[in-house]
Amino acid sequence: MHDARDAEDALLLAAGDHAVLLAAYADVVVQRCLVATRDEAGYDVAQNVFLRLWQELGRGKRYPVPYRRVVHNVIDWTLKEHMDGLEIRRSPTASVQRGTPSTRRSTVPTTSSEA
Question: pLDDT for 25-42, tens place per residue?
């Protein structure tokens, strides 16, 4: 099964038919992202996966492994980036570390007439 998919992917890569190549993986990417995020954010993650794959293909990047492996690796990396970002946003001290409006100090010097 994988051999046929790999052969078709190789033909599409050689022909430069990137839209068809990515469309072949649309369901896999979206489903993996939705299952991992468990909410509508999965669509955003899937879009990021497709953007990265599209940009790499546009730059002419070639891969020593089957393209299906590349797709799954990019899904994994993008999900990890997404989940790491969620952990930062959910952290109770994250707002203090980044500086909420109440903890930020003005960098504009005040003059004696403004003080």
Answer: 999 999 999 999 999 999
